[in-house]
Amino acid sequence: MRLPGGCSPKCVITIFSRRVLRSYVPVQGRWRCNVAAFMPEAAGFDGVSTRTALQDYSVSNSESFWAAVARQRLSWIKPFTTVQDCDLSQGRIKWFEGGKLNVSVNCLDRHVHTCPERVALIWERDEPGSEVKITYRSVGLDYVYVCLSSFVILSMSLISFHSHLLEMTCRLGNMLRRYGVQKGDCVTIYMPPCPLAVASMLACARIGAAHNVVFAGFSAEALAERIRDAKSSTVITVNQGVRGGKIIKLKKTVDKAVENCPSVQQVFVAARTDNPVTMTPKDFALEEEMMKEDVVCEPAVMDSEDVLFLLYTSGSTGKPKGLVHTQAGYLLYAALTHRYVFNYHDGDVFGCVADIGWITGHSYSVYGPLANGATTVLFESTPIYPNPGRYWEVVQRLKINQFYGAPTAIRLLLKYGDEWVQKYDRSTLKTLGSVGEPINTEAWEWYHRVVGDRRIPVVDTWWQTETGGICITPRPSEPDAEIVPGMAMRPFFGIKPVLMDSEGKVLTSNNTSGALCIAQPWPGMARTIHNNHQRFIETYCQPHPGYFFTGDGAYRSKEGYYQITGRLDDVINVSGHRIGTAEIEDVVNLCSAVAESAVIGYAHDIKGEGVYAFVVLKKEVNTQSADLSKQLNDTVSMKIAKYACPDYIQFVKRLPKTRSGKIMRRVLRKVVERDLNGLGDLSTLDDPAAVQEIIQGHLELCGDEQP
Ligand code: WTA
């Protein structure tokens, strides 16, 4: 079976009829959306004649909905026997058991049969205008001939194999097998967005290994921690990264990380630049090793619930958690959301500019688009390199139809003015998406008015690493349904959001705020935390038994639309990157001069949130605060990543604490927000005078300007 996003005859008919009928048919004297043209499976759902009814059906008949969609949109080696076996109160989540499939076959082989010449990846390299296109196709005879020839021709063949995704994946799969990677092992990938990174992910999927992609901005220590937790024997990286015109020495970072990772036996190094790097006995040149391999790689037969990948993300404690996603449910959810949230159609060019090191890159640069047979863009650069017109120049040059980016970039670009956008032809765009953090109304309006020429929908998409794919977003909905700026608004198929009050009761009325939970399981949700199912249960299942707790707060408007108001825990969001304040505190506290610290997020007009650290020094310390600030920043950058560095470090004599010793971060937030009336009752503090000192110190550090 194939996707409507593929090239099957059935799909062509669907698209044709959609165009001819314009998706509308007369129903009971009114023009109604032809829901079966919109989603073919809906023809089998009793009484479903509108998109709204389809959404209702997907929630109230969740099993029947997901069974139909899974049968239609995934290629199964063996069909599943149960749709779901879930109990949220116990943290048991299983979908499509009995089913066997291979994710790489779903993302590659089936498209090779139907549309081999279609471009799967467009690698938008850092250097503008040097994009590389990779088709789905497997190897042709010309290529085999080249492979057998001399070195010069061999290097030509690198260009050749770089142009077919299935064959890159197969070679990498065979290579990993030759080096002893087995089904169930976990391979760590530390690479910027590039075709070899995608092929490495798919190669893992092909042979049944899990992948653990680590954002290539993370420090050696952060990388080492993730490699150790995943127990990877194999790491895949590049010699150097290139971003914003600068060289980033990624292999050096890997070398440092691997020193502290006894599990690592081999590191494959791809050549992103021509600069040689020092190779250790564990290192192998990736392209060379690939070239030794066959272009056919037998796909492993995987159970629906086998692990597809781990992805580490921050929680409210210091230790990042490796969220686990499995095969069928994740892929199906990524594919369905990609198709319907963005109104993706066969032949479209989909441009998600997120890094593959985040869940957005996994679901919407790689798995969702490839499962749908799409052409997907891998963006290696930054929004302002070589100038603030970069995104829109790329939209024009690559003829992007759906553009998916982050509010932090939009806020940055709007400051550079409209000309950078208007210079370029954006007429190919059909949908604009936003993800990662709340999008403020000003940024939303600018995105809609200037980038989208008021012509196309902007979809604010709310979701998380844990949810696998988009859960709340304005589309799909009735084609003319309103979209409210800055609101994620409507649940996706199969998603039933609920708001809880502080006593854990479900809030049933509208125009109310509460803790955002999801009332029933869906196929894309994470299954556990690697090596720590107890933490999974405690974090997501126990706060509101029977519900999945998201950690976010939300407001439901009087119309019933959802607006995400932000985290309820000590997790902050810096330029769309999730980071636990405890994670930063743990690192700050490692400095020998530091007695203790408290880190909070504050509103930042570009980054969304900035990092503000309050630091108490040990008594005997006499160092200048400027030197100490630099030292602390360097430590955070070395242990976590640059984006986690505090924007402000305020040295204080003591922190406001309750009598039981708990730091009152709420008070610190109010000080930084300059909301002194909102400090609340300070009588429960151990030492209320501490607050006055902190207010004074804050004014000295920041002056009249609120940070
Ligand atoms: C936040 C990113 C408001 C939220 C896909 C969530 C958002 C966390 C939105 C997950 C949005 C994501 N509006 N807030 N549209 N999208 N968030 O795991 O706090 O990196 O819990 O996944 O980002 O971040 P993560």
Automatic annotation (TrEMBL):
Enzyme class per UniProt: ligase
User: Does the record bear Nucleotide-binding in its keywords?
Assistant: yes
* Entry EC no(s): 6.2.1.1
Could you list the residue ranges that cross the membrane? Answer: 143-161
GO BP field: acetyl-CoA biosynthetic process from acetate; lipid metabolic process
Pfam families, alphabetized: ACAS_N (PF16177), AMP-binding (PF00501), AMP-binding_C (PF13193)
Q: Which reaction does it catalyse?
A: propanoate + ATP + CoA = propanoyl-CoA + AMP + diphosphate; acetate + ATP + CoA = acetyl-CoA + AMP + diphosphate
The Acetyl-coenzyme A synthetase N-terminal domain covers 53-107
Span of domain AMP-binding enzyme C-terminal:
583-662
- Could you tell me which residue ranges the AMP-dependent synthetase/ligase domain spans? 164-522
Q: Would you tell me the Gene Ontology cellular component terms?
A: mitochondrion
Q: Which GO terms describe its molecular function?
A: acetate-CoA ligase activity; AMP binding; ATP binding; propionate-CoA ligase activity
Keywords (alphabetical) are: ATP-binding, Ligase, Lipid metabolism, Membrane, Nucleotide-binding, Transmembrane, Transmembrane helix
Q: Per the similarity annotation, which family is this?
A: Belongs to the ATP-dependent AMP-binding enzyme family.
Q: Give the protein name, as stated in the record.
A: Acetyl-coenzyme A synthetase
